[in-house]
Each structure stands twice: as structure tokens, then as C-alpha cells.
Amino acid sequence: MGCDADDPQRIAAFWALALGYVKESGFDEPDNASIVDLDGRGPAIGFLKVPQGNPDEPRTGHHLDLVPTFGCFSAL
Fold first, then answer.
1. Which residues is 46 bridged to in the sheet?
2. Separation between Cα atoms, residue 15 and residue 2, nearest integer Å
3. CA–CA distance, 5 with 49 (Å, rounded to integer)
4. What are the CB-based long-range contacts (under 8 Å, 24+) for 19-26?
5. What is the C-alpha to C-alpha distance for residues 3 and 11, in angstroms, rounded to an integer?
6. Looking at 13-17, 29-33, 50-54, 67-71, which range is the least confident one?
């Protein structure tokens, strides 16, 4: 999955923490970042720096739907 980002490193760090992912080695530069699920269950997610462009033009948005796995609330 690919996502546009103003600050790919910052956004990748946020989603890595939120999803329990890690940064993908070899894909870590100022203008791009990628995170992966070490268990191999979730998709790799790439973040690429994209210029802002005209602020009056809408940008294509991306989002992730997070679904908890069965039993994840047992510790609550």
C-alpha cells in the first residue's frame, strides 16, 4: 500500500508504533519510508513525499481501517 505524505519519516514512525510494525530496511530516505509487519500478516505500507501543490485543489486522501483481532481486549 502506498500513501502520500508531507513528512514520510514522521508518518511512518507513527503508523509503525500504532500497528506494531517496524521500518523496512533499505527503504529509508528523507523522501520515502516503508514499514512492515514482522509476522508477515499485514501489508507493507510505503510513504512517499508529495509536494503540496495548489492548496485550493483537493488531494486524494488515504486512510487505514484498523480492526482488532479476536481476544485483543482480554487484558482490559
1. 2, 34
2. 13
3. 5
4. 19/64, 19/66, 21/45
5. 10
6. 67-71
Residues 9-18: contacts with CB under 8 Å, at least 24 apart: 9/33, 11/47, 12/45, 12/47, 15/45, 15/47, 15/64, 18/66
Q: What is the pTM of this model?
A: 0.67
Strand partners, 52: none
pLDDT band at 10 (very low <50, low <70, confident <90, very high): very high
- H/E run at residue 22: strand 22-29
Provide the pLDDT for residue 3. Answer: 81
Structure letter (DSSP) for residue 60: P
Residues paired with residue 28 on neighbouring β-strands, in sequence order: 33
Amino acid at 72: C
Q: What is the mean pLDDT of residues 15-35?
A: 89
